[in-house]
Design goal:
This protein has 435 residues and is of the alpha/beta class. It has 21 helices and eleven strands. It has helices at residues 37-55, 67-71, 89-92, 97-106, 120-123, 142-157, 170-178, 199-204, 206-215, 221-229, 232-242, 256-270, 283-306, 313-322, 325-328, 333-337, 344-352, 355-368, 372-381, 386-408, 430-434; strands spanning 3-12, 18-27, 30-31, 60-64, 83-87, 110-114, 129-135, 161-165, 183-185, 197-198, 329-330. Helix 11 crosses helix 12 and helix 14 runs parallel beside helix 17 (344-352).
Length: 435
């Protein structure tokens, strides 16, 4: 049976902070929750038992629990502050709904109501819920928009927070903001997490010049050292990176040249976006950088685990990493990528989604967006077993989180003061770092 699972960010409507992630499931080409309750519960419980350490490690997870999952006490596997129990219609109409909800509410678990409606069965659950979730439909009528806005206003009147989901376009995202939703979830969220740099500033900036330098077939170490050395932000980020717990050097290094040699060109290529981090980091920049790493790792692992030969794993990694440039720079992908000396097959995949490499990138992005139908079609074209996708994805999520923690965490040696004390806030923007 084909099973897919992905997590999607839930972002604050007023800032770039991330509230948590919703875990989405599908099996057999249909929404898993539309199947037999026991069958869905078996699938979800099995997945959670095998992967809870990989998904419940940073932000809280929002998950729709079936009645069977709750009757099996599945939430008690996890810490109360790490999971929000989403209540769907299949639970609301269950004869034991109220006793189940009351039980977990007394235990300290929090709830969110999916697709809230003006009806007694929904209002009876309001006292237990912290969040109300409303689904943004495609091409909503003015009447539907007014109805959604009324629910949001009612939500605030009861002291609850509202999450608008499926905001997949800029128009839908802006509508959710205009209706004063507290949080927004959907495919468009990732595209708004990062402050875009102007094209001219970006292409002339030291960071872009570094990207070009490390992308060459035979990189010039002295050129790379010169580019990094003339930029305080790049120098700081590189030294922080190479002295992190990930590399765990026995002795600190304050030499740019030594840092480059320690990391190596291959590692520098792979983790190049880490050097774009601002001194005044935000959750928005964190999320888009993690997205870069996840796409890169997912594409690389798909090549390695399936035996596809049309590009190498390292090329797949680079393709996934560069695929987020459109979120970082206010210019078409073709103009941005045209300046980078990478293989034409990778360029064509990034710009026009051409060839098998383009299909691979489409598969990675469709999975990220929970477009399961298109995922299955692309997997068939690439001769990839759909059953492999969810486990490869979750393994990549775990690896990205682990590597991220070790790269951003300082490696403190006994009897030694921190080399990287918190920097004073300067109001520095991404444009300033990229120049």
């Amino acid at each position: 049976m084909k099973q897919f699972v992905v997590k999607r960010a839930i972002r604050s409507a007023q800032s770039d902070s991330i509230l948590g992630y919703e875990l989405l499931f599908e099996q057999g080409g249909e929404n898993l929750y539309g199947e037999n309750d026991n069958s869905a519960a078996d699938t979800i419980a099995g997945f959670l038992m095998n992967n809870s350490d990989k998904i419940f490690r940073d932000k809280q997870i929002f998950l729709t629990f079936t009645p069977s999952l709750l009757l099996r006490n599945t939430p008690q596997i996890f810490q109360k502050d790490k999971v929000v129990i989403q209540i769907g219609d299949n639970l609301i109409i269950h004869p034991l709904a109220m006793p189940i909800i009351e039980k977990f509410h007394k235990l300290g678990y929090r709830f969110a109501i999916n697709d809230f409606q003006f009806s007694p069965k929904y209002f009876s659950l309001l006292e237990y819920a912290e969040f109300i979730r409303l689904r943004m439909k495609k091409d909503m009528t003015s009447k539907e928009m007014v109805s959604m806005e009324n629910v949001i206003n009612m939500t605030h009147g009861f002291g609850k927070k509202c999450i608008v989901t499926d905001a997949n376009t800029q128009e839908q995202y802006e509508q959710a903001i205009a209706m004063k939703a507290d949080y927004v979830e959907g495919n468009y969220v990732a595209e708004t997490l990062y402050v875009k740099a102007e094209k001219v500033d970006y292409l002339q900036g030291n960071f872009f010049q570094l990207v070009v330098a490390v992308s060459r077939d035979e990189p010039d170490i002295s050129e790379i050292e010169e580019i990094i050395s003339r930029d305080a932000g790049l120098s700081y980020s590189l030294l922080k990176l190479v002295n992190s717990a990930y590399f765990a050097l026995r002795r600190r290094t304050a030499s740019i040249q030594q840092a480059i040699m320690t990391m190596g060109i291959s590692q520098l290529r792979q983790w190049i976006y880490m050097l774009s981090l601002r001194s005044e980091e935000s959750e928005g920049s964190d999320e888009i950088l993690k997205l870069s790493f996840l796409r890169a790792k997912f594409a690389e692992e798909l090549i390695q685990d399936t035996g596809m030969k049309f590009i190498t794993p390292s090329e797949a990694y680079m393709m996934g990493m560069f695929s987020t440039l459109e979120y970082m720079v206010d210019a078409p992908m073709e103009e941005i990528i045209g300046e980078i000396p990478i293989d034409s097959e990778i360029k064509n995949a990034l710009v026009r989604r051409e060839g098998n490499a383009g299909k691979l990138l489409d598969l990675v992005i469709c999975y990220e967006k929970a477009d399961w139908k298109q995922c299955q079609a692309l997997a068939a074209e690439l001769d990839v077993q759909p059953s492999l996708l969810s486990q490869i994805y979750i393994n990549c999520v775990e690896e990205v989180n682990t590597v991220w923690d070790s790269l951003t965490g300082e490696y403190t040696r006994p009897g030694e003061e921190s080399m990287f004390k918190p920097r004073e806030k300067t109001g520095e923007k991404i444009e300033d770092v990229l120049q």
